């Protein structure tokens, strides 16, 4: 019985309740929210220290109590390396997001306290999704986490927020309900086999992998649809650009940084070990979707005229890489995919934040309303560039390590898809650098920076454009992100050490021969 | 004369287990007493006496039930009493408990006089609501109180209905529960024409449904030579009888039952009646009638027609699908809160029917748990609906709910929670209910039905969400409705409904164990 995960779950929930009661005074509410988020970060560090990557235990820091005995549902928590790094990422991103949203302009009549309370409540849900080791409990968190996000988008988002919130919720709910059919199916299969029904993940793995292929395929598809909507794979991605564009910046960071990873995490934790036969049978389908996502997301990112939609489309491309790494079935690619999940949270989170900072200065989401901004805000320009480079996986940044691992690891098994995916790297350079050029390079121009002076893109006098550079708070928010981008770019070993054994265990549960390991023998 | 008396001595009175049927006797006895109160007490004293009498009766019936259920010598598998007319077994005890609790909540809503001064029920049809005379009348006499004995009679009928062990008892119980409901629907103080139209519609269609039911009973008597469920079950096991009588009888009988349960395509009355009836009565109808009707369906299917299931299973599959699709799709187009919940109840009836046709013990306990969960959520939801008002009474048009969260955050939050429960989001009783029913269905090999049900749930979620969007994300209209401060009765009813919705979502173990305690006895 380990209390670490339970504390990690309960602390933000308590924080959310406290902040909700303090929402009359925004300043106190914000400060309290930040204190809770930082305390959570400390707890996450403790969990990281307590986790032993070299141990043989598949799940660690476990705890379990009965919940609904009639159905064998238990409140079981535990983490493997994959879940642990995701929980650490949550604990890292939430304080960053709170700092980043500190001075956000909210829609009229909304209090910052309400915003931060919802953020903290959502944190509990997110930790729960990754920490649950009971499939029923996982489903509960999977759905429950939608509600705070729905309100975050719907109450605090951009002009088209009602539509976006509804679309986000309905997509996820539909996926969740399809998954529920499979969750029940898995339960019934276990009841048939064992006599008593159970939702315990570790027990279910031993049962479901014995199922015949046709059954596995149906059950796999139920889970897969839910996760493919979450991690948006083409063609189930259309909610993300809307939700990402309308969400307030802070919620957007968590949306693409964490919530969408529930999908890829679900592939690794549920689709692969529970249904190994179906996973291998359907891998070509998933790979096609993954590569299509990389190319399609990249091309659409090039063509975007809206900054936030741009970030959303780059994410769709990145999720393609992650899915490729997972379904290539090699330890290098799998490790790369998990590392990619972490790095994408950091680099896209930072990209979202700097985009938000650009928009806070210009008041417009349209790219054409900006130009030559680096002359006015050199520090913001520089940090935007760092975020962009990390997003296009320049060597020396964190994303390079993961993208490289995914491509190298996928090549032996899936050469064609890997080569196609590599095209996405080129496109990434195109969309990032071209965007940077349009917004920051050249003479100062654009209506957003100086008000209307004759059409979009019109040149203006830099002297008249009073646009402040980054303040201390904004620098403090971005500094840890830059630090992680560089540290993980040069020394990813601490994270890889935690991830690798768990990815190896997942692959052995699938039962595929690892091409890289074989070469080593 | 001599011979007649000699025969009379040989006639044996049936043995009656008074303790087992005590809850029914208490409720029906209190109903008769309540009629006397109505007749003999002066008008100003009636409301308080009726409320006390009704609530006490429900509590006493609950106490008697708990005593019987917990007594040492109570047979665990249940017993048949009153010459085989009534069976008191574990499902009946569960359904009686649910009905009494739901009835308690509904009576609280009905008794409330603070939300609408003078109560929600018509006092004097010649006096227009809201006028000086109306207020004077409300001030002098409180509220009209015929509704209390009617409620008790309806509730007593429902309790007999779920326990009836032969089809004639069931028919009489059906009438005892229906007739008061027809009347109660027409009692609305506001929008009387709508209310009276609803009552007439409900009565005419209900009379047809009763006729179908009775005709079905007659044909089944022709088939089995008995109206006892157990005898019909025995008869269906043999093969030398006319299948035509069985099919026709079963079909007509089930149509009558499905009508009461508002299962599509026999749902046509539901939206009109839900909308027209006074909201507290709608709450009572939506929650308790659903429980009673499905209690009856479960008993009939499980006891009498289990062995012939292969003959009717396909038809009820189709009915369940039609009901879910009608409820979910037509619910999308509604602009009135009460009609929307009515269509949602049609969709829920489809889900409940899935559980009922599994014919397994899992299906039985799952369906009963679903009934309990749905009942409490619905009572609380209608309680909230009765609070949102403008000068013309309740503001049930959806557009009037825009921005409600700003005016009344607590009401909006409670209603949001209840809508999420109806949509079946985890951590609410609605989710656990769906889960247990679908799990039972999947175990019985009804995977396609489960998938359709889940898709219907997703569609239905859209219209629940639309209300949440309206309440939270839209700006309130300048002349929008206000939220009345609920009186103690309504507060207690809403709190009870919402709290049980939450508790059944978080710790369903107790209720699940209770629902799964045993099967039918016959």
Tell me about this structure:
The complex is a heterodimer of chains A (521) and B (522). With 521 residues, chain A is mainly alpha-helical. Helices cover 73% and strands 3% of the residues of chain A. Chain A is built from 22 helices and two strands. The radius of gyration of chain A is 22 Å and the shape is globular. The mean pLDDT of chain B is 90. Helix content of chain B is 72%, strand content 2%. Chain B has 522 residues and is mainly alpha-helical. Chain B has helices spanning 2-10, 18-40, 43-70, 90-111, 132-141, 147-163, 167-185, 192-224, 229-237, 243-260, 269-276, 279-304, 309-332, 337-356, 361-385, 404-407, 409-423, 429-443, 447-473, 488-506, 509-515; strands at residues 79-81, 86-88, 388-390, 393-394, 482-483. Chain B has a three-stranded antiparallel beta sheet, with no helix packed on it. Chain B has a two-stranded antiparallel sheet with strand order 1-2. Chain B has one domain (15-515). The chains are: A mainly alpha (521), B mainly alpha (522). The A-B interface holds A 66-71, 109, 136, 139-141, 143-144, 146-147, 151, 154-155, 161-162, 165-166, 169-170, 173-174, 177-178, 180-181, 184-185, 187-188, 191, 197, 218 and B 406, 420, 423, 425-427, 431-432, 434-436, 438-439, 442-443, 447, 450-451, 454-455, 457-458, 461-462, 465-466, 469, 472-474, 507-509, 512-513, 516.
Write the topology of this structure.
The complex is a heterodimer of chains A (521) and B (522).
Chain A: H1 4-21, H2 26-50, E1 60-68, E2 73-79, H3 81-100, H4 112-131, H5 135-144, H6 146-156, H7 161-194, H8 201-208, H9 213-230, H10 239-246, H11 249-259, H12 261-274, H13 276-303, H14 307-327, H15 331-362, H16 378-391, H17 398-410, H18 415-440, H19 447-450, H20 472-490, H21 493-510, H22 515-520
Antiparallel strand pairs in A: 1-2
Helix pairs in contact in A: 1-2, 1-4, 2-3, 2-4, 3-4, 3-11, 3-15, 3-20, 3-21, 4-5, 4-6, 5-7, 6-7, 7-9, 7-10, 9-12, 9-13, 10-11, 10-14, 11-15, 12-21, 13-14, 13-18, 14-15, 14-17, 14-18, 15-16, 15-17, 15-20, 15-21, 16-18, 17-20
Chain B: H1 2-10, H2 18-40, H3 43-70, E1 79-81, E2 86-88, H4 90-111, H5 132-141, H6 147-163, H7 167-185, H8 192-224, H9 229-237, H10 243-260, H11 269-276, H12 279-304, H13 309-332, H14 337-356, H15 361-385, E3 388-390, E4 393-394, H16 404-407, H17 409-423, H18 429-443, H19 447-473, E5 482-483, H20 488-506, H21 509-515
Antiparallel strand pairs in B: 1-2, 3-4, 3-5
């Amino acid at each position: 019985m380990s209390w670490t995960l339970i504390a990690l779950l309960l602390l933000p929930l308590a924080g959310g309740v406290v902040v909700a009661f303090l929402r009359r005074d925004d300043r106190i509410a914000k400060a309290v929210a930040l204190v809770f988020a930082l305390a959570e970060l400390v707890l996450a560090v403790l969990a990281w220290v307590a986790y032993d990557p070299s141990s043989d235990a598949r799940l660690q820091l476990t705890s379990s109590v009965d919940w609904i005995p009639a159905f064998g549902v238990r409140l079981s928590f535990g983490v493997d390396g994959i879940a642990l790094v995701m929980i650490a990422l949550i604990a890292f991103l939430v304080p960053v997001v709170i700092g980043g949203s500190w001075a956000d302009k909210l829609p009229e009549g909304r209090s910052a306290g309400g915003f931060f309370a919802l953020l903290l409540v959502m944190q509990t849900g997110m930790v729960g999704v990754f920490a649950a080791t009971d499939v029923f409990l996982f489903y509960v968190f999977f759905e429950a986490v939608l509600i705070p996000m729905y309100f975050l988008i719907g109450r605090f988002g951009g002009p088209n927020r009602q539509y976006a919130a509804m679309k986000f919720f309905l997509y996820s709910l539909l996926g969740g309900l399809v998954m529920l059919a499979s969750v029940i199916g898995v339960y019934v299969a276990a009841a048939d086999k064992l006599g008593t029904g159970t939702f315990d993940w570790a027990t279910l793995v031993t049962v479901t992998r014995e199922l015949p292929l046709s059954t596995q395929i149906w059950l796999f598809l139920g889970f897969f649809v839910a996760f493919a909507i979450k991690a948006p794979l083409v063609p189930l991605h259309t909610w993300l650009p809307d939700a990402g564009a309308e969400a307030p910046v802070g919620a957007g960071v968590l949306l693409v940084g964490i919530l969408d990873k529930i999908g890829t995490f679900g592939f690794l934790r549920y689709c692969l070990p529970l249904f190994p036969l179906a996973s291998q049978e359907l891998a070509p389908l998933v790979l096609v979707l993954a590569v299509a996502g990389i190319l399609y997301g990249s091309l659409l990112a090039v063509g975007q005229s809206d900054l936030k939609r741009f970030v959303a489309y780059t994410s769709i491309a990145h999720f393609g890489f992650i899915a490729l790494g997972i379904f290539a079935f090699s330890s290098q690619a799998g490790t790369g995919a998990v590392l990619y999940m972490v790095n994408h949270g950091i680099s896209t989170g930072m990209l979202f934040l700097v985009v938000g900072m650009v928009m806070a200065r210009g008041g417009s989401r349209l790219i054409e309303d900006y130009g030559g901004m680096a002359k006015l805000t050199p520090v913001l320009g520089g940090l935007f560039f760092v975020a962009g480079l990390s997003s296009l996986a320049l060597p020396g940044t964190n994303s390079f390590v993961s993208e490289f691992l995914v491509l190298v690891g996928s090549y032996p098994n899936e050469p064609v898809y890997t080569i196609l995916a590599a095209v996405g790297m080129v496109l990434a350079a195109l969309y990032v650098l071209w965007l940077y050029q349009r917004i920051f390079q050249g003479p100062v121009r654009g209506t957003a920076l100086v008000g209307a002076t004759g059409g979009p893109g019109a040149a203006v006098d830099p002297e008249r454009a009073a646009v402040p550079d980054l303040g201390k708070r904004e620098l403090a928010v971005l500094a840890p992100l830059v630090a992680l981008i560089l540290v993980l770019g040069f020394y990813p070993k601490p994270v890889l050490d935690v991830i690798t054994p768990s990815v190896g265990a997942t692959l052995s549960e699938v039962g595929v021969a690892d091409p890289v390991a074989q070469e080593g023998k | 004369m001599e011979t007649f008396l000699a025969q009379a001595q040989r006639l044996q009175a049936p043995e009656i287990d008074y303790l087992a049927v005590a809850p029914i006797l208490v409720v029906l006895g209190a109903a008769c007493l309540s009629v006397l109160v109505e007749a003999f007490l002066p008008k100003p004293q009636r409301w308080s006496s009726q409320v006390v009498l009704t609530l006490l009766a429900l509590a006493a019936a609950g106490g008697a039930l708990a005593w019987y259920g917990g007594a040492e010598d109570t047979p665990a598998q249940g017993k048949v009493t009153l010459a085989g007319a009534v069976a008191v077994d574990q499902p009946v005890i569960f359904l009686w408990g649910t009905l009494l609790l739901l009835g308690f909540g509904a009576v609280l809503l009905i008794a409330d006089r603070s939300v609408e001064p003078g109560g929600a029920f018509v006092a004097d049809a010649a006096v227009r609501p809201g006028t000086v005379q109306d207020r004077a009348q409300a001030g002098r006499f409180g509220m009209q109180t015929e509704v209390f004995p009617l409620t008790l009679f309806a509730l007593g009928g429902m309790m007999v209905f779920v326990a009836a062990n032969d089809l004639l008892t069931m028919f009489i119980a059906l009438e005892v529960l229906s007739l008061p409901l027809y009347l109660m629907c027409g009692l609305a103080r506001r929008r009387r024409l709508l209310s009276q139209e609803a009552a007439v519609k409900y009565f005419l269609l209900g009379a047809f449904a009763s006729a179908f039911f009775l005709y079905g009973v007659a044909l089944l008597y022709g088939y089995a030579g008995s109206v006892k469920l157990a005898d019909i079950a025995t008869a269906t096991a043999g093969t030398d009888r006319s299948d035509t009588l069985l099919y026709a009888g079963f079909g007509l009988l089930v149509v009558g039952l499905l009508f009461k349960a508002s299962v599509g395509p026999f749902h046509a009355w539901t939206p009109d009646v839900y909308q027209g009836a006074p909201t507290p009565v709608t709450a009572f109808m939506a929650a308790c009638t659903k429980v009673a009707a499905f209690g009856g369906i479960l008993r009939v299917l499980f006891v009498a027609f289990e062995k012939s299931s292969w003959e009717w299973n396909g038809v009820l599959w189709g009915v369940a699908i039609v009901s879910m699709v009608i409820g979910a799709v037509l619910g999308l187009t509604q602009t009135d809160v009460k009609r929307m919940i009515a269509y949602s109840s049609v969709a829920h009836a489809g889900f409940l029917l899935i559980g009922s046709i599994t014919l397994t013990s899992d299906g039985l306990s799952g369906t009963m748990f679903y009934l309990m969960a749905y009942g409490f959520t619905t009572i609380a939801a209608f309680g909230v609906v009765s609070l949102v008002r403008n000068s013309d009474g309740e503001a049930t048009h959806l557009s009037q709910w825009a921005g409600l969260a700003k005016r009344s955050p607590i009401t909006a939050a409670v209603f949001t929670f209840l809508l999420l429960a109806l949509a079946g989001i985890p951590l609410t009783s609605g989710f656990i209910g769906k889960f247990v029913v679908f799990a039972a269905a999947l175990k019985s090999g009804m995977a396609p039905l489960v998938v359709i049900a889940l898709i219907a749930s997703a569609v239905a979620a859209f219209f629940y969400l639309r209300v949440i969007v309206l309440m939270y994300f839209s700006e309130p209209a300048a002349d929008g409705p206000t939220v009345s401060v609920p009186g103690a009765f309504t507060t207690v009813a809403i709190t009870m409904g919402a709290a049980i919705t939450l508790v059944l979502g978080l710790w369903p173990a107790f209720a699940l164990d209770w629902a799964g305690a045993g099967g039918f006895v016959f």
